[in-house]
């Protein structure tokens, strides 16, 4: 009805639309290129890259990448419209073109050749602001060297990222501290060794520091506290020893802290309570002991607390129940004993709770059944007992992400115990308290059988189609 009443006007409207849009459609291809080139012409024509700088750049390319014969194919690295892949240029106060960014390793950026070694010449590029070398140094051993300082303007470099370079070895050079404006330093997934140089902590502009996945040794220097602007600190997967420095409490902006998989000992320092913005803290796989700091509950921004595998050997602190933003709480393999605090059920946003492989006893708090966002719950291998307080809808919702196995004293109400593989026997069926096996193996065979049945019916269906 409606469309038919408008249909007489439709061609007219279309025609009008076409009429008005036509000039502008035509004008785009005719005006736009002229406009751009003339602007570039005025702006850039008198500007070229200083010869010494382009020569430096050619040398860097010679040592890094054989994707192109750079001198021949791209004689003008910053040529407007055909800048080299993997670099960015800017116009300096001297009205000349300069390289501001180098990004190698991942196509479409230049890839690195087998013999690529770290090019210290980059520090002679006076306008360099960011460096990204990803998966570059893989075959030939090379060291990070900041010795040839050249004429680098020491305030230009803001971001320095060398990631996934398995043949980048040796220490982090103390002279890295000359890059006063460095905000992001990423030296992750290399083979760097030796101590973290204390000079590094003079870089007070640092916002992100990531030295993870190396072979760094020694302690975390107390000078860490100088980095007042730090938002992210990742020293995970190294071989750092000693304790977490108390000065960590001075990092008032810190949001992410990852010290996992080191050899850190002692306790978490009390000063941690000052980290008001901390939302992610990972300390797994160290040698940290209990107790937790008294002020732990002040970490009201905390969403992820990941601290598996430390010899804590204390009771689980009730105060964790006050960290209401927690989404993930992992405290497995750490010798916690006593009961699971009822207060944990106040963590309404919790989606993952890992308490497996501890020494926990008593019953599972009844209120856990009301954790509306829980998605992954592992309480396996403890000494929990009593009736599992979860109804069938809870059990269905978590499915395979619920693991209660290895708690000989736990049992399931019969009505809830339909074919679920959570590793718990039905209450009263067998009071032997060591028999999770029958249910598990039974349900395995059931699912195997149903698989076989499924395959069989497929085969029959297939034969049916043939006939
Ligand atoms: C860095 O620059 C500052 C001034 O901006 C200067 O005082 C200092 O000596 C420079 N450092 C190096 C190593 O060039
Ligand atoms: C931590 O380990 C170091 C050796 O790495 C040792 O000297 C120190 O006593 C240990 N501290 C504690 C509190 O265990
Ligand atoms: C829980 O999560 C929801 C959605 O992510 C969020 O809006 C809410 O603020 C969170 N509650 C707390 C106490 O953090
Ligand atoms: C586990 O807890 C029991 C008491 O419930 C205690 O006797 C035992 O020493 C604890 N084991 C460990 C490794 O903490
Ligand atoms: C299961 O328990 C939850 C929380 O106690 C409750 O909200 C829900 O209605 C229960 N579902 C059934 C089917 O009993
Ligand atoms: C177990 O079943 C009994 C009887 O069916 C019921 O009274 C009890 O509340 C159930 N317990 C749990 C934890 O569901
Ligand atoms: C629970 O933890 C145990 C021991 O680490 C692990 O083997 C199991 O796969 C985990 N279960 C789930 C459902 O994550
Ligand atoms: C309990 O388990 C033991 C072996 O662990 C077995 O000898 C015994 O027969 C079992 N009792 C029942 C009632 O199943």
> Unreliable runs, pLDDT <50, ≥5 residues?
1-46, 433-467
* Number of distinct beta strands: 23
Determine the mean pLDDT: 82
| Major β-sheet annotation | 14 strands, mixed
CA-based gyration radius: 31 Å
The N- to C-terminal Cα distance equals: 51 Å
Instruction: Work out the helicity level.
Output: 10-25%
Topology as H/E string?
A: HHHHEEEEEEEEEEEEEEEEEEEEHEEEH
By helix and strand content, what is the structural category?
alpha/beta
Oligomer: single chain
| CATH topology heading of one domain | Leucine-rich repeat, LRR (right-handed beta-alpha superhelix)
- How do the strands of the widest beta sheet line up side by side? 1-2-3-5-7-9-11-12-13-14-15-17-19-21
Shape: elongated
């Amino acid at each position: 009805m409606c469309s038919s009443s408008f249909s007489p006007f439709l061609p007219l409207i279309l025609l009008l639309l076409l009429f008005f849009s036509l000039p502008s459609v035509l004008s785009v291809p005719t005006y736009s290129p002229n406009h751009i080139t003339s602007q570039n012409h005025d702006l850039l024509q008198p500007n070229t890259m200083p010869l010494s700088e382009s020569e430096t750049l050619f040398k860097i390319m010679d040592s890094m990448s054989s994707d192109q014969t750079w001198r021949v194919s791209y004689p003008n690295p910053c040529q407007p419209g055909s800048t080299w892949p993997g670099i960015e240029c800017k116009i300096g106060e001297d009205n000349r073109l300069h390289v501001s960014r180098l990004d190698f390793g991942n196509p479409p950026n230049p890839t690195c050749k087998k013999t690529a070694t770290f090019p210290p010449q980059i520090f002679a590029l006076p306008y360099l602001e960011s460096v990204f070398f990803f998966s570059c140094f893989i075959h030939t051993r090379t060291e990070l060297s900041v010795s040839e300082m050249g004429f680098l303007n020491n305030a230009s470099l803001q971001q320095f990222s060398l990631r996934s370079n398995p043949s980048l070895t040796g220490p982090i050079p103390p002279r890295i501290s000359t890059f006063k404006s460095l905000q992001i330093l990423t030296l992750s997934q290399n083979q760097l060794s030796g101590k973290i140089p204390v000079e590094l902590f003079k870089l007070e502009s640092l916002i992100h520091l990531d030295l993870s996945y190396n072979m760094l040794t020694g302690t975390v220097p107390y000078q860490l506290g100088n980095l007042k602007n730090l938002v992210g600190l990742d020293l995970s997967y190294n071989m750092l020893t000693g304790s977490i420095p108390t000065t960590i409490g001075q990092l008032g902006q810190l949001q992410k802290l990852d010290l996992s998989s080191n050899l850190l000992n002692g306790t978490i320092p009390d000063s941690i309570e000052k980290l008001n913005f901390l939302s992610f803290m990972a300390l797994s796989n160290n040698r940290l002991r209990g107790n937790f700091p008294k002020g732990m509950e002040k970490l009201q921004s905390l969403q992820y607390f990941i601290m598996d595998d430390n010899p804590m050997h204390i009771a689980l602190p009730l105060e964790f129940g006050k960290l209401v933003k927690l989404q993930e709480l992992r405290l497995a393999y750490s010798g916690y004993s006593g009961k699971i605090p009822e207060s944990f059920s106040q963590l309404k946003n919790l989606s993952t709770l890992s308490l497996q492989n501890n020494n926990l006893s008593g019953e599972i708090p009844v209120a856990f059944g009301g954790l509306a966002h829980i998605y992954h719950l592992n309480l396996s291998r403890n000494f929990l007992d009593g009736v599992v307080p979860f109804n069938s809808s809870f059990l269905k919702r978590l499915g395979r992400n619920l693991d209660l196995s290895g708690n000989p004293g736990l049992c399931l109400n019969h009505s809830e115990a339909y074919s679920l593989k959570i590793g718990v026997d039905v209450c009263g069926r067998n009071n032997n308290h060591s028999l999770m096996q029958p249910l598990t193996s039974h349900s395995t065979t059931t699912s195997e059988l149903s698989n076989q049945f499924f395959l069989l019916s497929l085969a029959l269906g297939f034969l049916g189609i043939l006939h």
